[in-house]
Specification:
single chain; alpha/beta; five-stranded parallel β-sheet; 23 helices; 37% helix
């Protein structure tokens, strides 16, 4: 009946149009003959001018042919519908019998709700189910037909792409979904302990995504369930994992910037579906503790638990969130309320910007609507080590990831000597950490670098020298102005030959000589790489293309105060990732934030810095006597967090109040620099600030740099940090 009605709606306008044309032709045939009254056209219908009657007969034939064709089409359509209906009923009965033999319990419980749910559909044809379902004029007959539709789309696994039909079915099938979900949960229980993809995040998740993932399997009734159960049972997540073919938000890289972007996207778009692709086997985690707190842990199983005590004594995990926070990647498509999924152990090797898709190292393709590149960087190595051969490289660690921490921890427990090449942040932190460990063992810790003192490229010379003495007191043998000429392996020992003739023998080397931004996708994506600083060049909104953003270590951005820069610190990764996530959801905000960074030489000495801190710039330092509360440990006890950038608040810098305590003279270069502020100047304007054992004052420093003003007396500016108060 519906088909006949649709056919008549199409043919009726044609019939009316033909009738109208006939009447108009009749009038035109009569009017030329003296404009005779209405009776004349009737006579001319049979005896009018030549050709007039023929046209009328033609129109009559057209109308008749249209009616006849419509009748034939309606007859064939009704007959075809009956045949398809019968075929589908037969198919349903055969499938239900087959399902009953394979799984006698589940189908019996899930079939009846499916029949009730089918009331939302009204079209019997399988191809047109998805389109008419929202209209929903539900006559009683299609009820039985639509009971077949869900079961048909559920049986053949990937063919019909049931994602398109998920929303209508989700709304209609809650009872059936719950029955299947109850069976899915128990087999998935053990997998969260593995910290990999299988965890049934939707069941445990505390965010709104919990509802999404809990309902999303119900969107495709029996299809996903057998797959999930099989995966968790076999315990082979990467091999059988079904990667989504499309995701609205694709984040390349599993570091701090990606995680911050994912949280930001979900905050502005609670229903967003976010997929993080990382080549590491781990979920997103924070990197600073790898060279700081983890080395001071008393727990012998710290390499397995990756839990550590912060300087304030509180314990936390290195991971940003537990596995239950995320949803399984194969459930992302069907998650009604969205969620964040992490695809671990997969690397994006090619990017098609025009086609909005990427290719993974296993040839899998994923399309996206918006993409974030947060690939971070790879640690640099010395060329002399790379050329030395495999025997030397096997005894060399490039420190960056969790695996590097685990392997270095194991190595240091089985050797007698280790040499750290590099005097920057990472090298100095590792030197102090391993120096503390040497007190409990016979491990010899050596640190060498080409500068005259630790942090020589960052700190003024007098403060660099003081830091060097601090590192030595930790049990580290420091070799300054050391330029490595060659590295060889003799008698299972590494021999480091310096250019000045000195020779250092050691069992293992840690190369901490900087980071190279990962721009492997630049060539295939056609993205611009900055020739001076490295990294992808982005605009003020961190955009590289209209729908591609870059954040973290790999982004070379323009600083409105300090010019184009590239920053390799945790706080920058957090802030740039968060801003990129906001802009991916339409915020269009520029990057105004002056990111900070910090470094701790153990629990007693630490500093925070912002802006351009380069020892080649002129500096002015103001110092005061330190108290017991002027240590990293005391700072974290006060703020309640071990990651100090998390405790920052911008509004505390709006109205700084200077200390009334009189300040001592500037540049107090004594042997002990308790606490103080070091200003870095360029053209008499402060472009960088280091807070030495002064904590939780970074918003004030950020405001000073943002103002960009000349200061006649920096001693007065130092009062804003209250360094002279006990």
């Amino acid at each position: 009946m519906l088909k006949c009605r649709n056919v008549w709606k199409k043919l009726a306008p044609l019939a009316r149009a033909s009738s109208t044309v006939c009447r108009q032709n009749v009038r035109r045939a009569g009017l030329p003959n003296g404009r005779i009254p209405a009776r004349v056209p009737v006579a001319h219908m049979s005896t009018g001018p030549t050709g007039g009657g023929g046209e009328n007969h033609l129109y009559v034939l057209l109308v008749g042919a249209a009616c006849l064709g419509g009748g034939i089409y309606a007859y064939q359509t009704i007959k075809g519908d009956q045949q398809r209906y019968q075929d589908r009923i037969n198919e349903i009965s055969s499938r239900s019998q087959k399902a009953a033999t394979e799984e006698p319990t589940t189908p019996i419980q899930s079939e009846p709700p499916a029949v009730k749910a089918s009331k939302t559909e009204a079209v019997p044809e399988p191809e047109t189910q998805a389109a008419p379902s929202p209209e929903e004029p539900s006559p009683p007959v299609p009820d039985v037909e639509l009971a077949a539709a869900p079961s048909e789309t559920a049986e053949p696994p990937p063919a019909d792409e049931p994602v398109v039909e998920a929303p209508p079915e989700e709304a209609a099938e809650p009872p059936a979904a719950r029955v299947v979900e109850e069976e899915q949960s128990p087999p998935s229980e053990p997998s969260p302990a593995e910290l990999t993809e299988p965890p049934p995040a939707p069941v445990v998740e505390s965010e709104p995504t919990a509802a999404a993932a809990a309902e999303s399997p119900s969107a495709e009734p029996p299809e996903p369930q057998p797959e999930v159960v099989a995966v968790s049972g076999v315990d082979s997540t990467p091999a059988s994992l079904k990667v989504p073919s499309h995701t609205p938000y694709l984040l390349i890289g599993g570091g701090t910037a990606s995680f911050a972007a994912a949280r930001s996207i979900r905050a502005r778009d609670p229903g967003a579906k976010v997929l993080i692709v990382t080549d590491e086997p781990d979920l997103p985690y924070m990197r600073p503790p790898l060279s700081k707190e983890l080395w001071f842990s008393d727990d012998p199983s710290v390499t397995e638990t990756l839990r550590f005590k912060q300087w304030n004594g509180k314990e936390r995990s290195i991971y940003f969130q537990p596995a239950s926070f995320y949803i399984n990647p194969e459930e992302l498509d069907s998650a009604e309320n969205g969620g964040v999924a992490v695809l671990t152990g997969k690397k994006v090797v090619q990017m098609d910007v025009r086609g909005n898709k990427v290719k993974l190292d296993d040839e899998t393709e994923i399309s996206y609507d918006k993409c974030l590149i947060a690939t971070g960087g790879v640690p640099r190595n010395l060329q002399v080590i790379e050329r030395a051969g495999e025997e030397v490289t096997q005894k060399t660690t490039l420190f960056r990831k969790i695996d590097d921490f685990k392997s270095l921890d194991k190595v240091t427990r089985n050797i007698k000597s280790i040499t750290i090449i590099g005097g920057g942040f990472l090298g100095s932190e590792l030197a102090c950490a391993l120096g503390r460990r040497s007190h409990e063992s016979d491990l010899e810790v050596i640190q060498m670098y080409p500068e005259k003192g630790n942090m020589g490229k960052v700190l003024p010379e007098y403060l660099s020298n003081w830091t060097t003495e601090k590192v030595k007191r930790e049990g580290v043998k420091v070799i300054t102005e050391a330029l490595v000429k060659s590295v060889t392996c003799k008698d299972d020992k590494l021999e480091i030959q310096l250019k000045d003739g000195r020779l250092v023998k050691t069992d293992h080397i840690v190369a901490a000589v900087g980071l190279e931004p990962n721009v492997d996708l630049a060539k295939s994506a056609g993205l611009e790489v900055d020739s001076d600083f490295g990294g992808y060049r982005v605009n003020a909104e961190l955009q590289a293309r209209s729908n591609i953003w870059v954040a973290g270590d790999a982004a070379c951005f323009y600083d409105i105060r300090l010019g184009r820069r590239r920053v390799e610190h945790h706080d920058h990764a957090v802030v740039s990732g968060r801003l990129a996530g906001e802009n991916m959801t339409g915020a269009n905000k520029p990057y105004w934030h002056q990111s900070m960074f910090w470094s701790d030489l153990g629990p007693d000495v630490g500093y925070e810095a912002i802006g351009i801190v380069d020892s080649s710039l002129p500096t002015v330092g103001v110092f005061a006597k330190a108290t017991a509360k002027d240590t990293p440990k005391a700072a974290t006890e006060q703020s309640g967090t071990g990651i100090r950038s998390e405790s920052e608040t911008e509004d505390t810098a709006t109205s700084p109040v200077a200390s009334s305590t009189p300040a001592p003279a500037m540049e107090q270069h004594k042997d002990d620099y308790g606490k103080g502020v070091i200003f870095y100047l360029r053209d008499k304007v402060v472009v960088g600030i280091i807070l030495w054992n002064v904590f939780n004052r970074m918003p004030i420093a950020r405001k000073i740099i943002k103002d960009g003003e000349e200061h006649a007396d920096l001693n007065e500016v130092a009062k804003l940090f209250n360094i002279h108060e006990d």
